[in-house]
Every structure is written in C-alpha cells, then in structure tokens.
Design a protein that fits this description.
43% of the residues lie in helices and 16% in strands. β1 and β2 form a beta hairpin.
Length: 399
Amino acid sequence: MESSDSLEWIEDELRAIRGKNLFRMLTEIASGQSPEILIGGKKHILLASNNYMGLSTDPRVVQAAAEALAKYGTGSGGSRLVSGSSDLHAELERKIAEFKSTEAAILFSSGYLANVGTIAALVGEGDTVFSDELNHASIIDGCRLSRARVEVYPHLDTDSLDRMVSRSRGGGKKLIVTDTVFSMDGDLADLREVCEVSERHGCMLMVDEAHAMGVLGEKGSGATEHFGVEDRVPVVMGTLSKAVGSLGGYVAGSRSLVDFIRNRVRSYIFDTSLPAASLAASIEAIGIIEGEPQRRKHLKDLVDTFKVGLCDMGFNVLPSQSAIVPVLTGEPEATLELASALRKRGIYTPAVRPPSVPAGKCRIRASLMATHTEDHISRALEGFGAAAEFVKSSLLRRR
C-alpha cells in the first residue's frame, strides 16, 4: 500500500501565496531597535519599529532589566496563580493603573493574549460585539472566540455605529470595541464620540491603546488621556511592547474588572507570567515616558517633516495622527519593488500586504522613533525619492 503525505496540500497553498506576491520571509537584524540597525553587516535606517519612544535600547531601561535579571533569574517559573506572581508584577500593575488613571490593572504576557482572553470573557453566546472594520487581528480573534454575534461598523464611522447599536435586537450584553490608534493606518478613533454612543445605549466599551500609549496625551498615557475620557472607558487594554519598549500586555479598569479577569480569563489563568527583566524594564520606561515629554514633541516634529517631504515628492500618504506614516502603493508587486529599492538604499521598511491590509491597499508602513534625528529623516526622504525614481524607470523599461 502506497503511503501518502497528509501535508502535501501545503505545497499547493504556498505556490498560491507566492503566485500572488504574498509570500513572507524573515529579515534577521543583528542589533537592537535603534534608529540605525545592522542587516547582513550593512547599516540601515530603521523605519519599521513600534519602539516609538526609543526606550528598548535606553541605557536606563537596559540597566533596570539587567538588575532584575541578576536578582530574579531568566524566567518566572509559572502562571500568576501558581508561583509566577512576584513583587515586580504587583509594582508594575500599580504603575500602569496610576499611569492610565484607573483603579487597577492586570498583566498579560502579550497584548494579543489580553485582547483575545478579555473579549471572550466579557461576552458570549447571546451577546453582541460592535467592532471597527480595521480593528487589530487580536480583537477580531477575541470576537470570534467569544461566540457572540459580531457586527462590524465602517471604519471610524460613529454615526453608523450608533444606528447599528440602535437596531440591534435581542437581549444579552453589548460591547463596543475599537483600537484608538489603528496599527496600519495610524489614524485615531474619536473616543468622545464612541463614549457617547456607548453611554447612550448602555454598552460596555473596550479600547485598545497599543499604538497610542507613550505617543499621545500630556503625560503620554494614550488616547483616553488625549480625549479626556479616562473616566468614561471601563475597559482599557494596552501593550508594553511598543512605546514602552519591553514585553507584555495589560487591561486597566475597575478593581471588580481586574478581579473578574483574574478568575475568568483563560489566557491569563493558564499562561506563564512575564519574566522579571521585562517587568523592570517596563517600570523604568513608563517613568521616562511620564518625565520626558520632550520625546513626544521631538517625535511629532519628525513625523510632520517626514509626511510633508513624502507628500511633496508625490507619494500617497494616508492621514495619520500618530508615529505611523502609511505610504499607499496599491498592489503587492509595486509595494515589494519599492520596499526592495528602499532597502538597497539603506532604508528598512518592509512591504505590507494582505491579510495585514485589505486587497488593493498595500503600503509601505513607515514608523518613526523619538531617537531618530533630523539627519535620519533627511536621509530617509532622499532614499524614498531615489527609490521612487528607480521603480518608475523599472516599470517604464518593462513596458
């Protein structure tokens, strides 16, 4: 009897992915997330990191992590409810709650786990979730796992959201969930309007501050601070892996919410807790974010300069109110060509293609850091200009 390969179908799938210019490969970076990185022994300006405040390589943050590593070791040894809850976990949770102006906070090993687990615990069968169409995959997956009915509203369209909630039939709990800064577009949900809809209809509201924390707000707390709605959003999720420069996720809110999560959320209960080095790094980094507002001012100035320069060269730059600068390119082939041309000129910012973005809306997603200088941005703009000319001439030659 002939044996058959039960995974043979995977090769067909991979051929289809390659045929659509959607195949993904890893790029090995031989340095930290600094403004300039090493790839294959060559320096590149990094325009692809979510390390928005540049804190992952800050000497103070690194030192805090090193000291915790020496004291606590490399791993936490278990879940929070077994042996994996340390005094550093408690200190960081208090720090986050104070930073986000909430009663309490609870840590997860990643932002993905925070979203997936929390949404699936807040709602279930017979309930309804209203989700922005461009919400992060972790929100989408949390909605699916919850088995609640999911109604997707047009991006940032709070009038449509209001109508959808008004027309929603049946009993059960209702939850509105949205990113604050959207990871691929860099635009910002108007939380004042979203709060009004949730309050008008008695809905729970959950927001994802992953790309807003550290970047927005007077003290860098995020979009809830930026809009002055910190006391109107009952469930605030965020990450420690972006502007904070470390690792992990959290949910902040009332003490009752945190107690509920501790007792009901599977991605918290059954997951090994964060290691001490990451906790200490986050504690130090949040203090720097609060104490050095000039970082946010410098970052905003760089982003404004970069966007104006790209627009002057004719690039289609999507509106953005964050450190994310999306350059719309359309189809995968053109996007890959531009990304390749940029890399040859020492600019690292990869092509973003479906499923990360909708079909026909491929882009170069540039992201800036507070540790970039004006010289970095000037050189990056020169690289974009030269790369664009190369891609245009290449297309003309093929015609």
